[in-house]
Amino acid sequence: MIFETAYMITAFVTLFVVVDPIAIAPIFLALTPGMTPQERERIARRAVLVGGLILVAFALAGEAILDFIGISMAAFRVAGGILLFLTALDMLFERRTKRREDSSTENDPTHAEDPSVFPLGIPLIAGPGAIASVILLVGEKPGGEGLITVFGILAVVLLMMYAMLRLSSYLEKRVGKVAINVFTRIFGMLLAALSVQFVLDGLAEFGFVTPLG
């Protein structure tokens, strides 16, 4: 029971931090200037749906793809952990937010009427870190139960993303950029710790370290 609770907490924190609804909300505003609430609602819904479908596909077939190209799950855990650690560093030093803002400005909203698929769905929601995370989390607990758990938590995180996008205009006025930066750094620290755990789990499978507990 303790393992189940720890696994669910780890899965939720990992997906929430990597998908990062708080950081994407202001980017969503930059991509949808001058749009009506109805247009923003439609774009938010489509972006979350596209990103969710991509993450579900990798959760279902990600390990099979790795097996096909000859990559072990342990190796992917180490590589994924390193990738997530780099993402955490970006969050701690604001490079990730700047890169996302650059991605939004490269796609001029005046020429891109619907940014729901790109860059919102891909790569802002279903980015490399999120894809790596769902594969790693499913691999942490193989079988139907782990898959259902990841799907359930992913659904919760995506619903939170949808809510944040819908409330982005209000939250920007009430919370402010300083608070968003504080939250981003806190989540970056959590993600750094989780990424190190992924690397240690992968090294333990190779026999380089002894797993705790």
Summarize this structure as a short list of keywords or feature phrases:
globular; 213 residues; mainly alpha
Provide an overview of this structure.
The chain is mainly α. It has one domain (about 1-205). It has helices at about 1-20, 20-30, 35-70, 75-90, 95-105, 115-125, 130-140, 145-165, 170-175, 175-205. Helix 2 (about 20-30) packs parallel to helix 5 and helix 2 (about 20-30) packs across helix 8. The protein starts with a helix and ends in a 7-residue tail after the last helix.
Sum this structure up briefly.
With 213 residues, this protein is an all-alpha fold. It has one domain. Helices cover 83% and strands 0% of the residues.
List the helices and strands and how they pair.
Blueprint: H1 2-19, H2 21-31, H3 37-68, H4 73-92, H5 95-106, H6 116-125, H7 128-140, H8 144-166, H9 168-174, H10 177-206
- Residue fraction in strands: under 5%
Mean pLDDT: 80
- Oligomer class: single chain
Helical content stands at: over 70%
Estimated radius of gyration: 17 Å
Secondary-structure element pattern, one letter each? HHHHHHHHHH
Number of H/I helices: 10
In whole angstroms, how far apart are the ends? Answer: 15 Å
**Computed structural class:** mainly alpha
Largest sheet: none
The low-confidence runs, each spanning 5 or more residues with pLDDT under 50, are none
- How many domain regions? 1
Globally, the shape reads globular
Number of strands: 0
